Amino acid sequence: MDSVTQMVLGAAVAGFVAGRKCSPKILLAGAALGTLPDLDVMLSYGDPVSDMVKHRGFSHSLFVLLPFSLLLSWLWQKWRPTRFSFAHLWLLVAACLLTHPILDAFTAYGTQLFWPITTPIAISSVFIIDPFYTVPLLLMLIASLLWRDRMAKLCGAGLAVSSLYLVWSLVAVNVIEQRVEQQLEGTPMAGQPVFITPTPFNTVLWRIVVKGEDHYLEGLSSLVDSDTHIEFIEKPLGAWPEGIDSDYQQMLAHFTSGFMKYEQRQDELVVTDLRLGMADYMPFQFALASQDQSGNWSVIPPVRLESQSVRLKHIPTLWLRVLGNQDIDANLCHISECPSIGETARR
């Protein structure tokens, strides 16, 4: 999740665990602890593919954060004695640290909760920025600063609301999963790998990717659609050239669970993570191979390519689709052809 969300989550967790000993300083400490695991973004692993697949790695591992929380609690109590017992202080620190990667695991990017086992956990039921999760926590934190005698209870209330929202997201993605399964039943794509993820800032409109042998299907489904039939668009997957091996291609295949496409652009082969982004807004694209004049492919050092920038005029169109307007296909059309809000209204 975004840094603001992790800060308010850490602060709320610290306030709730602190109980009657809660204070503004405890909330501030919780906010700092809540963002600590994301400091791994400052690390460079030498190439853009490694930077992607190793983010949310050791710094988000339960096996690392648990002993680290013990060390951090011991140092805190030694250098700045508090009113907390060591057990209470450790519980506070551990809770702030561990809730960070657990929340991240609900996103599509994935989190290596059990590093050094490098398989990412990606429940993919919330978008990386979701105000419906963050705002209740933020409001309760503000209220706790105004009514300090109720700090812990207000922080607990914020956590309860945000946790219920996560539960709701699991229910919502299950509804979409059932729709997809029913629609694909009896078709050649039945039983093929499916990836479902929420569109930006909500858990109502969902993007679906169904991966076949040489093509994939992409579609949208909103929980408020009057017609639950999903209009899929078929797109080519492409293929990695035979006869050459790339560690980077294998790293991406493992990280994405195979949800990636291959596309030749001039003399380069571009690999795109299909799970993250939508339409032409695909943020993780890498050039991994080049073709010579004889048509032979060779591996090159990975280069991350720039994605198209999000156009503000398309955001209202997306929200109309969230509300169930199935005449809009903001996810699957090409960006240059995607109608703006005014064009949609005239249709």
UniProtKB/TrEMBL annotation:
One GO molecular-function entry: hydrolase activity
InterPro entries: Transcription_regulator (IPR053170), YdjM-like (IPR007404)
Coiled-coil annotated residue ranges, if any: none
Record has Protease as a keyword: no
Keywords: Hydrolase, Membrane, Transmembrane, Transmembrane helix
Transmembrane portions of the chain: 58-76, 88-109, 121-147, 154-176
Keyword Ubl conjugation appears in the UniProt entry: no
PANTHER family per the UniProt record, alphabetical: HYPOTHETICAL MEMBRANE SPANNING PROTEIN, MEMBRANE-BOUND METAL-DEPENDENT HYDROLASE
Protein name: Metal-dependent hydrolase
Species, as recorded: Photobacterium sanctipauli
